[in-house]
Amino acid sequence: MSKNLLTVKNLSAKVKDKEILKNINLNINYGEVHVIMGPNGSGKSTLANVILNNPQYEVTSGDILLDGESIMDLSTDKRAKKGIFMSFQNPMEVAGISVENFIRSAKIAKTGENIGFLEFREKLEDNMDILEFKHEYSSRYLNVGFSGGEKKKNEILQMLMLQPKLAILDETDSGLDVDAVRTVSRGVKEFLSENNSILVITHHREILKEINPDYVHVVMDGSIVKEGSKELLDRIVEEGFNWIREEVK
To answer: Domain with 39 in it: what CATH number?
Structure first.
């Protein structure tokens, strides 16, 4: 029997006075890949942000449990230390700190342990090779002057180095060409193990060709309206969401 990693219970949230999430329920076990799909503006990214406690969103009801314990009172940084990671649709550029120093600092902050410089660099370069990411990018400022594909590879590099329990990939594949998506997918596949789980938010199927999803959840108007397996994903790719809208009606 798989051990539960994340449980979202009856979660509702709003931005200012607008309710975005409505009674969301979600269970993710270790070793699983879950996919969230839905039309633009349906609440997919909001769910990701609420799980990591983005202060722009206010939870109005419900609970989020990690390893069976509520994390509702934890700040974003403490949730990250507990093992939640999120890659962003549009990663920020941060001048003044290199990719290598940023990831090393994040790793030390997460584990509370110092890391040998040579050991860290060797691991970093091994993971950069998996992502076909040139080693010289490790000494460049974080995302500054990076292409869209390079920024997304950098996000997956951080995931591989930090080894979180739960990796939330918020449209990591958006704006990437087919080759870049395949490379990112390879990094995601390399990451997945029985000791972690992945929550993928996407409009596309390409990123999932290397990693078969266990569960697919369709979000519309802030609620999960349909759930299924890979077959549901295949039908959405072929037919879109209109048939689900008709079912919901």
So the answer is: 3.40.50.300
Contacts of 152 (CB under 8 A, 6+ apart): 87, 91, 172, 173, 175, 176, 180, 184
Per the structure, how many domains does the chain have? 1
Domain that holds residue 216: 4-90+165-248
Place of tokens 């996407």: 202
What is the SS3 assignment for 110?
helix
For 10-69, give the DSSP string.
EEEEEETTEEEEEEEEEEEETT-EEEEE-STTSSHHHHHHHHTT-TTSEEEEEEEEETTE
Per-residue pLDDT of the chain in tens (249 residues, 90 and over written 9): 569 999 999 999 999 889 999 999 999 999 999 999 998 889 999 999 999 999 999 999 999 999 999 999 999 999 999 999 999 878 899 999 999 999 999 999 988 888 888 999 999 999 999 999 999 999 999 999 998 889 989 999 999 999 999 999 988 777 777 787 888 888 888 999 999 999 999 877 777 777 789 999 999 999 999 999 989 988 998 899 999 999 987
Which amino acid is present at 206? E
Q: Is 24 part of a structural domain of the chain? A: yes
